[in-house]
Recover the amino acids of this structure.
């Protein structure tokens, strides 16, 4: 049940959180995320009042969702703007509640992170401008066709576009500029370092970690998609060169990013070889 305490201003977060559990989490879920939430509460100086309870409830739900996605409970990852927006897109609830979640997390994020790119503030995306995400069936077919390209260089390009797009949400701005040195393991997960227009380390979804690490292992001094080109339209050119049968959707970096954003993510064995 949702428990409230009579904590007074200045109470240590560990004291008033000891007898608290958000109503939207099970006891096991709360036990898994409580240390992370308590640390955030301590850093924020939360005192157990109504505003503090709201912040803890939202942080707890975000942290529990992050665990379900295979993300490490690290503030730089969980409170990254992209992670927050994916959480909001996947959350179920009244529009007013989700708007409150977004507003609260955008307020808390800059206070709890040092490297997450909260400045300038993330702008809301217009749904009409977002590429159509792939369906589960379409993504599975693309995975099959990635391994059936006529040349090894195209196989590599197709695998990298899929893994970095659907697994890390990278579109044409970044997907062709990731080298082996940009993939690393930290905070219990695999991260990809990307540069301009927003320099940051992006967490890879757990289901795609093995594929990204395999691409790193074979990339050498080339980019994960192959080659050395830094042409601005490289992602589009690579996608256009990939062969797909009639009736199958084409590879698209923007659609893969939209799939990564989608509330109904088609994860599973699609990224396994």
């Amino acid at each position: 049940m949702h428990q409230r305490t009579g904590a007074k201003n200045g109470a240590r977060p560990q004291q008033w959180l000891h007898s608290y559990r958000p109503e939207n989490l099970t006891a096991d879920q709360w036990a898994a995320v409580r240390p992370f939430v308590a640390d955030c509460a301590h850093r924020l100086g939360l005192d157990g009042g109504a505003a503090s309870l709201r912040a803890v409830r939202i942080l707890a739900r975000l942290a529990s969702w992050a665990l379900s996605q295979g993300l490490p409970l690290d503030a730089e990852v969980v409170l990254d703007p992209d992670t927050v927006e994916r959480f909001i897109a996947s959350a179920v609830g009244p529009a007013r509640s989700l708007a409150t979640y977004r507003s609260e997390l955008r307020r808390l994020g800059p206070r709890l992170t040092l490297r997450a790119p909260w400045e300038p503030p993330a702008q809301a995306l217009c749904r009409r401008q977002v590429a159509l995400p792939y369906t589960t069936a379409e993504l599975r077919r693309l995975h099959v066709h990635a391994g059936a390209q006529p040349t090894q260089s195209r196989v590599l390009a197709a695998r990298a576009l899929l893994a970095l797009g659907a697994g890390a949400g990278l579109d044409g701005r970044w997907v062709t500029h990731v080298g082996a040195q940009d993939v690393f393991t930290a905070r219990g997960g695999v991260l990809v370092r990307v540069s301009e227009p927003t320099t940051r380390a992006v967490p890879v979804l757990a289901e795609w970690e093995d594929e990204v690490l395999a691409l790193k292992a074979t990339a050498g001094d080339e980019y994960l998609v192959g080659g050395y080109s830094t042409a601005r339209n490289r992602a589009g050119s690579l996608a256009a060169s990939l062969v797909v049968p009639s009736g199958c959707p084409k590879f698209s970096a923007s659609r893969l990013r939209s799939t990564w954003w989608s509330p109904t993510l088609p994860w599973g064995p699609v990224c396994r070889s």
